Structures are given as structure tokens and as C-alpha cells.
Amino acid sequence: IEVVRTEIKSSPFLGIELSEVKHSKIDSGRGLVLISGLTGNALADGKLQVGDTIVGVQSGDVSYRTTALDYEQTIAAITSVEKQNDSVTIQINRLVERAPIDIKFKTHGTNDQQDSAFIRARAGENLRSVLMRANAKLYDPKTKRLDQPFATGDCGGEGICGTCLVKILQGADSLSSPDKVEYTMLRGKPDSWRAACRVAVGADNQPAALSIELTPQVAASSSSGLPSAESATAR
User: Fold this and answer.
1) Quick one: three-class SS letters along 24-66?
2) Residue-averaged pLDDT of the chain
3) Does 66 have pLDDT greater than 70?
4) What whole-number distance in Å separates Cα of residue 201 and Cα of residue 168?
5) Tell me, what DSSP letter sits at residue 73?
6) Using an 8 Å Cβ cutoff, are 194 and 182 in contact?
7) Quick one: which H or E segment has residue 185?
8) Which residues of 10-38 are buried (b: 16+ CB within 10 A; e: fewer)?
9) Sheet arrangement for strand 87-94
10) Cα–Cα dist 178/62, whole Å
11) How much is the pLDDT for 114?
């Protein structure tokens, strides 16, 4: 889902045509209302499209959430905010096709051409989920957990153990940015490393090619002379 927010002049008229394509049989005030046409100011604005669904309207201090409202309630909300100012802020949700993301992955120390595997994902998918679907060897059984430093094994993608480490060889700019949890996991580790469970591929919904190395902590431990269970990976 793509979210678009735009401000449109309400005079002489907004120019948004709506159609209710589904009405709730349980709640009379609920339905699915889509934009069915654009004229006037809305057409000139250029940011709305036929098929979008309006999820919120605002003008000045008055705002309404219109998600899942029927035609009458949606029109009432728009009419109410139109009276407040000479412009209305419209927020819509738009269904968009997710771009393909081609992922090449290999285990540390293996031949890049002979031992690489490939999988196609869709933009927005979680990297750990994609790799698990491909039966990739994402985890090193000797890597100790951050949340239980005397234990090994993974947390099942809950984002607390820090054991699903990958090294990004290509395509880092197509990934979601690290959040606070991932920053904590990666403290003291190379910038090219990511925690797969915290990463969304194709964050900008553009086709991309991603190349990654699995369990980079094992290679780092080997080069430092430490066993992988005690992976020390200071910058």
C-alpha cells in the first residue's frame, strides 16, 4: 500500500468523484469507497488516481478518519472540512504492484559463482523470511545470542537475539534503514552488516538486485583467531 497526502483547493470545487463498491451487511455505516473520477482542482493537482481510497480528510483544526466509511459518511466528512478553509488535505491509500527484488546469497568463504543461490522476492518483504523460504543457512549454530549471552540458537525472527547476521555485498541502498533495535544489534560491527529479521527489501518499491553473504560473523571470528561462539566484530 502506498500512502499519498495532498492539499487541494476547495474552490470552486474539489473535483473528486466517489463510488461505493462494497457496503457492509453488518454495519450500515461501513463500506469500501473508491475514487472513480477526477475533475477540476483534484485533476489539476495530479496526485490522486482513480481507484484510490480516501482514508483521511483535514482542513485547519478539523479532521476525520474515513477508513472503511460508506459513501454517505465519506461525503459528510469531506463536506464538513470543506467549510473550514479554502483547501482540504486528502490522505489516500493506493494498492501498488510490488517491484521484483533479485537476491543472490552465499555462505562465507564459498565460491561466488559456483556456490551462490538465487531467489526472487517482492518489495517490502522481510529479508529473513525470504531467506528462510529459500532454505538458506542463515544461522551459525555456535553464535551466541545477544539476549542470552550464554546460549545459542535463534529467536525465530523476534528481533532480540542478533544471530541472523548478513553482509550486504550489493544493493544496500534498496534496503530499509536500520531502526533503533537493529542499531543495538549491530553495535561494534561493520557497516555492511545487517540483521536480516529487521530488514525490508526494496524499501523504495523499485526493482533491485541484492547480493549478500550469510553468517559473516563466522568469517570474522576465523580471521581474528576466535571461535565463532565468541564472535568479536569491532570496527
Assistant:
1) CCCCCCEEEEEEEEECHHHHHHCCCCCCCEEEEEEECCEEEEC
2) 89
3) yes
4) 12
5) H
6) yes
7) helix 180-185
8) beeebbbebebeeeeeeeeeebebbbeeb
9) 2-9, 87-94, 53-59, 62-65
10) 35
11) 59
Local confidence band at 228 (pLDDT 50, 70, 90 cut-offs): very low
- State how far the alpha carbon of 35 is from the alpha carbons of 43, 54, 78, 226, in Å: 12, 8, 13, 61
How far, in Å, CA of 235 to CA of 232, rounded?
10
Instruction: Show the cell assigned to 203.
Output: 524499501
How many whole angstroms separate alpha carbon 210 and alpha carbon 138? 16
Distance CA 158, CA 164 (A): 11
Produce one character per residue of 63-86: b if its CB has 16 or more CB atoms within 10 Å, e if not: bbebebbbeebbbebbeebbeebe
Q: Work out whether strand 100-107 and strand 208-214 pair parallel, antiparallel, or are unpaired.
A: parallel
